[in-house]
Every structure is written in C-alpha cells, then in structure tokens.
Specification:
heterodimer; A: mainly beta; six-stranded mixed sheet; five-stranded antiparallel sheet; B: 11 strands
Chain lengths: 110, 115
C-alpha cells in the first residue's frame, strides 16, 4: 500500500460548487497531516494542517478519521482561483519528513 | 511566513556536467533541510534529509554519489547533481524546517533540463 493515496481526479467544477477530496494513509502512527496546494510549475504551499477534531478555515474544511486512516478536504463556494493541485501530506514512518500524495487536480470554470 | 530561496531557478546543461543547486533559509535557522524531486504529473518524491553538520540521509533508490548534499550551515544546503543525464531533468525543490515545530517551508524550486 502506498504511504499516501489520493483521489485520482481531475475534478472539473463550476464556480460556486462544493467539492471534496479524499486521502488515505498507511502509517497508523502518523500524528501530523496537512493539505498543500500546488499551482502549475510552482512549489507547494501549505493550505492547512489537519487536526483530530477537524478544522475549518473560511471555505475550507479538513477532517481526519484516524480509525479509517482517512483525511478529507472540503471546498465550499469554489472560486476560479481555487484551480490548482491539492496534495495530501503526512509525516513519514520515522516522523522526520513529509510524504506527499500524487495530488488531485481541481479546475474551476465560470 | 518564513522564506526559503533557491538558486538557480532554472538551469539547462549538457549531459555529463555537474549542476549545483543552493537552498537558503533567509529569516530563520534551518536545522533540517529536505530535497525533493518532482517529475511532470507526479508527486514530490523525497530524495534526502539533511541536518546541519551531519551527513544526509538518502531515501531508498537515490544514489548518494550522484546527488551530493551538503548542509554546512544553518541557512544553506546545496544539492549537486553530478554527471547529469537527460533522465535527471526534473523540478528540484528544497524545504527547510527550524528547530521547533513541524512546519516545512518550501523554496520556489529549480527546473533542471539536461540536454
């Protein structure tokens, strides 16, 4: 099983839509989880950390299910500027480095 | 947030030459730096982790003699791709982490094209 697996995508949605991305991870001992955003030909940028209780930042909501080793990201009221690749990220087995999923591409159209 | 720079931002070189990429943390001391590689439409793959003053730890499948990493100070790490070949063409990204916290700050990346 890959360390981090994500929905294959791509997701093509109209402006204003709600879209959800899913991710599973293999290391049950992982303590830290993140969603990063990567624009084309750019470095990844931290979107939000994911906490056990779930957390919300404006239109973005992240959820963590430890029992299922599952992470989700919900984007409400999609904007054109949300078009990007969203990377699910967890710490590696040793807890020393980030392991990235392949990413899910979102395209928001008007 | 913290700033990490990389230089050069892109480089084109002939097969067989060596290329050095610098990664600097500009406003914090990076006790740990990471080097990633990303091929088109693929995820970032961790190549190696380096702690200041010690040898880098390479991920499985990454040749340490080909990808030389030096982390001589708390603000600078370098990656040298030795005897580069076309298959080494990729997007190389570094990230840096301070002594406290989990947050890694990414550099803008270096695009390498080997002809």
């Amino acid at each position: 099983r890959k360390e981090v697996e994500q929905d294959p995508g791509p997701f093509n949605v109209p402006e204003g839509a709600t879209v959800a991305f899913n991710c599973t991870y293999s290391n049950s001992a992982s303590q830290s989880f993140f969603w990063y955003r990567q624009d084309c030909r750019k470095e990844p940028k931290l979107l939000m950390s994911v906490y056990s209780s779930g957390n919300e930042d404006g239109r973005f909501t992240a959820q963590l299910n430890r029992a299922s080793q599952y992470i989700s990201l919900l984007i409400r009221d999609s904007k054109l500027s949300d078009s990007a690749t969203y990377l699910c990220v967890v710490f590696n087995q040793a807890g020393t480095a980030l392991i990235f999923g392949k990413g899910t591409t979102l395209s928001v159209s008007s | 947030g913290a700033v990490v720079s990389q230089h050069p931002s892109w480089v084109i070189c002939k097969s067989g030459t060596s290329v050095k990429i610098e990664c600097r943390s500009l406003d914090f001391q990076a006790t740990t730096m990471f080097w990633y590689r990303q091929f088109p439409k693929q995820s970032l793959m961790l190549m190696a982790t380096s702690n200041e003053g010690s040898k880098a730890t390479y991920e499985q499948g990454v040749e340490k003699d080909k990808f030389l990493i030096n982390h001589a100070s708390l603000t600078l790490s370098t990656l040298t791709v030795t005897s580069a070949h076309p298959e080494d063409s990729s997007f190389y990204i570094c990230s840096a982490r301070g002594a406290t916290g989990d947050t890694q700050y990414f550099g803008p990346g270096t695009r390498l094209l080997v002809l």
